[in-house]
Amino acid sequence: MPAETPLPSVMDRIKVQGRGSGALFGLRLQRHSFAFFCKQLEVLQPNHPTDAARLQAEFGSVRFIHLTREDKIEQAVSFVKAEQNGLWHKAPDGREIERLAPHSTPIFDAEAIETKHAEFLAADAAWRAWFDAQSIAPLTITYSALAANPRDILSQVLQDLGCPAQAAQNIEVPTARLADETSREWIKRFSELNRT
Predict the structure, then answer these.
(1) Between vectors from CA 103 to CA 99 and to CA 104, what angle results, nearest 5°?
(2) Is position 90 within any domain?
(3) In this structure, is residue 144 part of a structural domain?
(4) Residue 144 and residue 70: Cα distance in Å, rounded?
(5) How many folded domains does the chain comprise?
(6) What pTM does this model have?
(7) 135 burial class (0-12, 13-18, 19+ CB within 10 angstroms)?
(8) Tell me: the pLDDT tens digits for 64-79?
């Protein structure tokens, strides 16, 4: 959309994209862009006192799902490795789904991992603080549970949304984990460096 597109039109487009061909609207928000999103929402819904009230006024009944990764070292290693080698998502059969840069061999970088580790810890704390401040009890899903049992977790999400949970059993899981021996080696090295 052009930069001069009025904000209500932008939000209308978001709602169309987030609904697709279904009845439910879904919006994925990441912490680094959340403050900007809330400021835009405040412009659209100035008569409501809180973020939660503005979200409800804009989108109707809202349910929050908080996906979090318990092991922030694993998360930091995964992020730094993807940044370095350019591969962000692959299919279960090994095909690349999302590559943002040409392949390069990743090199252990403790400083980059530490930076991301601190960012991820701060982001998770900020989400928890925001949920508490807004009196929101999200459905919390951990990355490890999702990776281990994606269909079971999807069933849980569908049930939470009031949809038929059994529909999840027919879903093909579209992605595979990228963690490998390099990831495990980096996690071990970083953990050992930070033990002292």
Answers:
(1) 135
(2) no
(3) no
(4) 8
(5) 1
(6) 0.88
(7) exposed
(8) 999 999 999 999 999 9
| Type of residue found at 89 | H
Q: For residue 38, what are the domain limits?
A: 1-62
For residues 157 and 65, give the distance between their C-alpha atoms in angstroms, rounded to a whole number. Answer: 8
> Could you tell me if residue 54 is inside a domain?
yes
CA distance 85 to 96: 12
Q: Which contiguous run of DSSP H or E holds residue 140?
A: strand 139-142
Question: Average per-residue pLDDT in the chain?
Answer: 93
| Polymer length in residues for the chain | 196
- Transcribe 72-136 into DSSP letters: HHHHHHHHHHHHHH-EEEE-TTS-EEEE-S--------HHHHHHHHHHHHHHHHHHHHHHHHTT-
